[in-house]
Amino acid sequence: MDNNTKTIGAAVVVGGGIAGMQASLDLASSGIKVYLVETKPSIGGVMAQLDKTFPTNDCAMCTMAPRLVEISSHKNIELISLAEVESVKGEAGNFTVTVKKRPRYVDEKKCTGCGSCLAVCPVGKAKAAQDGKERKIKPIPDEYNEGLSTRPAVSIPFPQAIPNKAFIDNRYCLYINGGKCGNCKKACKADAIEFDQKEQIFELNVGAIMVTPGYELFDIGSKPEYGSGKFENVLTALRFERILSASGPYQGKVLRPSDKKIPKKLAFIQCVGSRDHERDYCSAVCCMYATKEALIAKEHLGDQLEIDILYMDIRAYGKGFEEYYQRAQKLGVNYIRCRVPDIEEKPDTKNLVIHYLSENDKKVTREYDMIILSTGLLAPKSAKQISSTLGITLNEYNFCNTGPFTPVNSSREGIFVAGPFTEPKDVPETVIQASGAASKALSLLCGSRGTLIKEKEYPSEKDITGQEARIGVFICHCGKNIGGVANVPEVVKYASTLPSVVHAEDNLYMCSSDAIDKIKQKIEEHHLNRVVVASCTPRTHEPLFKNTIREAGLNEYLFEMANIREHCTWAHMHEPEAATKKAKGLVQMAVAKSKLLEPLYRQFVPINQDCLVIGGGIAGMTAAKEVADKGFLVHLVEKEAQLGGNARKLHYLIDGANPQDYLNDLIKTVNNHENIRVHTASPIESLNGSIGKFKTVINNAGNKQEIEHGAVILATGGIEHKPSEYMYGKNKRVMTQLELEDKLVNDPKFKAPECVVMIQCVESRNDDRPYCSRICCASAVKNALKIKEKYPDAGVYVLYRDMRTFGFLEGYYTKARQKGIVFSIYDKDRKPELIESKNGNLTVRYFDSTMQENIEIDSDYVVLSTPVIPRPENKELASLLKVPLDQNKFFLEAHIKLRPVDFATDGIFLCGLAHYPKSIKDSIAQAGAAAARASTILSKKFIETEGAISVVDEAKCIGCGTCVNVCPYNAPALEEVTVTVEEVTYKTKKSRINPAACKGCGSCAAACPAGAITAQHFSSREIREVIDAFDKGVRGVSIEKSIVEVMV
Amino acid sequence: MSNVQSCYQCGKCTSICPMRRVSKTSPRSSIYNANVYGLETNDIWTCLTCGRCPIECPQQVDFLNFIKEERQGKTPLHVAHLGVFTEFSELSSKLDGKTPERSDSKYGYFPGCVDSLDLFLHDVKTNFGEITTSSLKLLDKLGIKPQIMNMKCCGHDVLWQGKKDVFEDLKKYNLNYIKESGIDTLVTSCAECYRTFSKDYGLGIKVVHISELLDKLGLNVNDAVTYHDPCRLGRHMGVYEAPRNALTANGVVVKEMEHSKEEALCCGVSNFMNCNEQTKALRIARMDEAEATGAKTLITTCSKCLAHFNCLKTEKDSVKKYDFDVVDLTVYLARKMEQT
Questions:
Q1: What pLDDT is attached to residue A1048?
Q2: Which of B165, B189, B212 is the last residue of a domain?
Q3: Is A586 helix (H, G, I), strand (E, B) or coil?
Q4: What was the ipTM of the complex prediction?
Q5: Residue B155, in any domain of the structure
């Protein structure tokens, strides 16, 4: 791209799943106008259909819904649903994208999403309402429930859909296909139905294109051995996910479709449609989603449900996965290693029978009530069309081609890709890649950042000083989550009797956009000056409701939330009456507090736009380059004398690429970049401050330098573990994979081996180090192939527990077997042994479970696959930055699924091995993601602070520093003052809380011995009021004595 | 009754009041206001009840009793730590409590509130529970195997915070507990418990502060320390020599501070009130005196003094660093005993 040509400060994002959403938010928050083009009626992708997410079992919709809402209310994002890209002209920085939008037959501006049209649509219902005559209309399978329920021709895909607008399916609509009916038009109070809507074609002028079309699931119709989808009780895992979901076809009850009975024996068959000769790749997510679904099903049905997972290798390779797998085993999920040849259906019971060969060579027959097929991920159906429209190349399986060092670049400049379209992957990696792709676009468009965006405008704030409290209470059913247990109308009635409450109402989903509009309307109508919403957790939904009342002219802090889902109906699922009473009590407490709420205001704190990157390995250098490419000054700090980190020890990658060439280029780029200051041999001495204004002192051989910066990217890497077993360090022919790699390339004395044995999972996946190091299986395959390439006659044995060659790595595993490399399983409890005979020969002895006997191999070299371990100095660094470590002492991100590169502390980001073991390609993607996330801060001139922060009454502060010790966000600091009390003058320090860093958690206010700190919005007075209301409310109704006593 | 009527407003009390150095607090005007005009003043709350003024009073006005009674039923100006310790006492006053596990021993040892101090005072980096374990080790060495008195809070803080009703509930329970235990001597390691059981309970059995027993340990410690007189042990109870003897008899040299015994300066915070910048000035003054002795250890016999000196000492990033340890007498001696 010519530097003089003006780029367009806008981007189009193709595909509105989790990848597209993340890319849109990163771009839009960094000042790029975003057009989000989604082919379906709503964004959300497959994640919107999931019940829970592994490995934390968080509710998928609960973590995702706030993002859906954020997209819909983001001023810089224009959502274009039911649309596809027709053609692309131009070049990077200035594309003209032609978009075709299919008709919705509903005016999006007028539709409130109220659902009246859905109720009157006759299509799919057996009897038509008006004439009583039977109509022969096939029911329409509801796509959201994977065909397990039906839907009318006019529908809203799911309750949290964005846009939350009705959509008429022209394939089924009676009016569109024959001019009869029109019920929906009559029923629509908003006059939104437009049967004459036509397809629209328009052009968008953008600088970059993000391609995130997602994936397709393997169609079990082409698996006759598993019934081709005709056995009622054989389901795909996504269907089963819908069955597990409370918003699913059976309201979360685990039933089998044929007779709606509760299953007692259930099996998952893994690798359906992947890891075979047609698709020689691993779908990367199925082992974990099967484990998740097994755990949830067990949660629902307990020990009466028996679950087998029939697998080949359990690929629990991501952060927290191995621990999750261990937990599932402890909770009674059986994992059986086999490949199931076929399924037979018993005609009478519709039960299913399978035969398989067990690990110890015995034929086993089993009968199940239900079988779940863990279907693999395919490239999206639209892949070929996308490829030709956008001019980007695909690989042999129709996934998008990316390079070994360019994980988010398509083959065409200015077009970036992310998500499973490039390779099967799970949510966090999708989010990482999406942010990484956003980073590339931000670099490309850095000259035109902020040129096409609007600031969000709110109506001027109503002055409520001196007004009596007028409280509105809005109570959510959350579908069945709340309304299925508690009697919501009764709670509404109760709420309306509470003092100062002037209005109370309920809604099926308070977070749906029609309910939001209703809240605004009621604020006007009843002159409300306090709003209470009783629904789910404020963690996910408070921002939405605060924004809502702000849009209605109220200060956002005049809002209070009662959590009657997690705190009530989920906890008392089987006690509807008690739950109703408790819900009343919780509402009463919120109402009591809301009376005392006062308006609070956010501050605008100027920020420093420089960035500090800690660690000069591949991740750190890539992050530095990516931030610098966006026009920000970067200080890259490395404690070693040399840049390069672990990559200096890597000489070839599994795909043959040369990391040294890449590394040397990167070092050169970083050293010569006009926006990068490299500080080698400069350990960090101190790091203070917070988002927007950090101060860091580095020490270069006694030469201290202070750096001011607005954000931090932590990329300090990890190290290869040096084991103590298998004679490592005692026998020169025993080595780690990295040492082998070095010898293969650099050691002239390395003698051609006759036999090499590799042992996987050495001192990893055990009690001391329970995590899977993710990269060792691929390293072993890579080095085994290298040995075979250099010494074709050498015998190579890989002794493993599970081969975890996920995604396209599977192809290399296949290739290795084809080259004659022997892969043999060993059991955790029967580890291979290494014996050194008197003449110095090394013999590996292990139990081969297929042959059921002990095998001994004489080996020239024994190579140990040891894990990547966290750096020992992580603990020190973590306390310096005030960020947490996980149980394995890697750094812990803010949210394992949706915020994989952020820390809970604002302004600090994470990438590379410091986060978890990963490949170079993954590190590069994550470094880009960290850069994009940092850029969302650095691209602003001010940070808007939280309003409900803690404040210090300086006259009361005794300067003990307790607040500094307890604050998780590094917000309080001690500043020196002189105190004069009558005859005595002394110097001391007093606490000041930095409003930019404070999140208002209140830890300091609770810990302050002098009572000098007030957590605004949670003052002692407000809390006392809540406790008094508890006395009258929850305790007054006395649900269970034991609970109340504990709470007192 | 406190004999406040005898006060002739000479003002000697206010002129020597440590709080007067750092605030407008005046013992004289608090008596004057209450007695002459029947007015309430903040001064009854800013008073540290350190007991300094009655010692000098020419009319021997029982100022401590006056303050204690004057506070009853009123709301304190400010209670430190958001009143959590008060809440604990109140809660414990409402619970059933334990019954004594009787033994043959005629000695009972009461650990006081070290557990709740450990629970909430993390930042002062003090192991309060070690006072209990040390006391038991030392008693053991003396051949005393006391019953552990698993009683409720002695009620000192609530009494001085004006909550006599709570105090009476606690006292009633504790009196019964002591009676049922069958002991004839109650040993405490806390100056506040000691004062309360001795003066506010009417127990009818012997109450001993552990320092009064420790001169017979027979240790030969070669060390020099300084000793801070807690108001509750010293001026309230007149026990000045016992802790000093406990040190000197075991070979420890006591380097006295500029003000000691009856004239000792105050730690600034009794009964978890008055944690503020005024009393911090007093704390600094006391710690400066301790530093000036050159001793490497400051010994005290009250867990409140211990907490608050250590609070100053362990301040995050403080302006001044104090390079000596602040240790309870029992902990100090038990550690020395175990070193030999």
A1: 28
A2: B212
A3: helix
A4: 0.88
A5: yes
